[in-house]
Structures are given as C-alpha cells and as structure tokens.
Amino acid sequence: MNETEQSGGSWWHRLSAGLRRTSSSLGGAVSDLVAKRKLDATSIEELEEVLIRADLGVATAGRIADVLRQGRYEKAITPDEVKRVLADEIERVLAPVAAPLVIGDARPFVILVAGVNGSGKTTTIGKLAAKYRHEGRSVMLAAGDTFRAAAIDQLKIWGTRTGAPVIAREPGADAASLAFDALSAAKTAGADVLLIDTAGRLQNKAGLMGELEKIVRVLKKADASAPHAVLLVLDATVGQNALSQVEEFAKTAGVTGLAMTKLDGTARGGILVAIAARHRLPIHFIGVGESVDDLAPFQARDFANAIAGVEA
What we know:
By secondary structure, this protein is of the alpha/beta class. The protein has 12 helices and 10 strands. α11 (271-279) links the parallel β8 and β9. 49% of the residues are buried.
C-alpha cells in the first residue's frame, strides 16, 4: 500500500468502498459462473462477455480469458482464484500509465483543466489546490469557466478555503483573455502553480472545442511552454462515452494526463482499464467521493485489487 493513512480511514478503505459497485457487479458475476462448475470453454466465453459488459474493453477481456485457458482448463477453480487473475491482468494494463502529475521547474507551472459538463472539473481543481497548498506551494486559480456564474462562484469558494487567489471576470467574459491575464498575474505574484478552469464542453461541439484550442494558443503567447500540463477530468459514470472524450480532447488540447472522478457512483469503473489499454495516457488521479481527501494519486495495484474485489 503506497498511500498513507488519511482522516476517516486509509485510502485503501476509501478506494475499495468507492469501487464496491464495480467490484460487486464483477465479483457476483464471476462467482455465479465458476462456483458450481469446472472452467470450460463455455464458462470462459461467458466470463469474457461479463468483463466486456463491465467496460474493461474487448482487448483486456480477451487477454484475461486467454490467461484462464492456460493451465486451468477443465479444472475446478474458485472465484477467489479468478479474481486474483483479474487483478493481476488489470494491473498489467494499468501499471505503465500510473504516473504522478509532477510539478516541473516552470514558475508558474500551468495546469489547464478540461472536460465535459458535470465531470467534476471545478471540484477537482479545488482539491488539487488544497493538495498543493498542503505541500507548501503557492497556488493561483483562474475561473475560466466563464459560461457559468455558478462555476465562478464555486472556484472562489475553493480559493477562500485553500488560501489561493482567484482570477475571475464577469460571466460571459472571454476565457482565453482571462487565461492570459491569469498567467501574467501568476508570474507577477511568483506563484508556483496556476490551475485554470475551463467551460464544460461536449467533445462533439466544434465551436466550443475551438475555444479550448484558443485558450491553449493564447497561453503560449505569454509562455511558449504553457500549459505545462493539460489534465482531462473524466466522469466514470458515463462509461464508454469516456473513450471518445479522451480521443477528442487529446486532439484539441493536447491532453497530457487524466483524472477520473465519481468512481463511487457507478458499477462501470472498469472503463478506466479500457481507456488505459486504448489511449495509454498517464492516469494521475482518481476520485471516490466528495471530501478533499477523496482525490488521490492513482496506484495501479490498489485499483486493480479493489476493482477485482481482492483484499490488499
């Protein structure tokens, strides 16, 4: 276990509880399939279908099925043994993409946060601000979701809570101009980290995605190396739709890493495995609740064990 104890119980307990819907759905299906019969061609095929329905992805489901065929064919096998195989194979997919979001040498280090409406962007920014402030870094926030007054107000609340200044304009202001001004202010203030919120946009809306592209372009006028990270926040409850979100945002904004939220609200947590297998983008953070401690650095083994229902 890599995570330290946090208030309200260890991160492992938070994670396993947060992924209970996913692990219960997956574990129940596994138990039903293998508890009363030997592992044969039919049961392996059915298990593969269960894994695909759990959003793990066709490639990962097929690989797990292949592993189960090797050396276990026509033998009795316990649900726990199958879950162990699941956990090991899921970890194999996730380990190469589990990576911390490293704050580099640039000052300010600019993190542009993107995602569709309702993905949890603004809350994630607030939690990251709290994390970086706890680490002793100076943080500035930019309320770049100028379409929603509520998003601006929400970010101001997080700013007050974390002691981070917030650069904001009236609703409807030009988001790219605000981002430029925020970067200038962060440079003047000597801030370590600048977190920029953006308007929630659907990945299939060309005009809105074009505005995100403009924000990136304008930031580069102030600092050719900015943004230094583009964090895409994904809502786990949308399932397969998250795959197309990653693809479109990566093309538009040059996504450098992912954060997945709301894993506690879905039985579809396996989608993170499918995303890792297809896109191979770094996964920096996952969220399993509303409190500030419920966003944590992504750990492949912990996630794999929790989703498979295996005790750490």
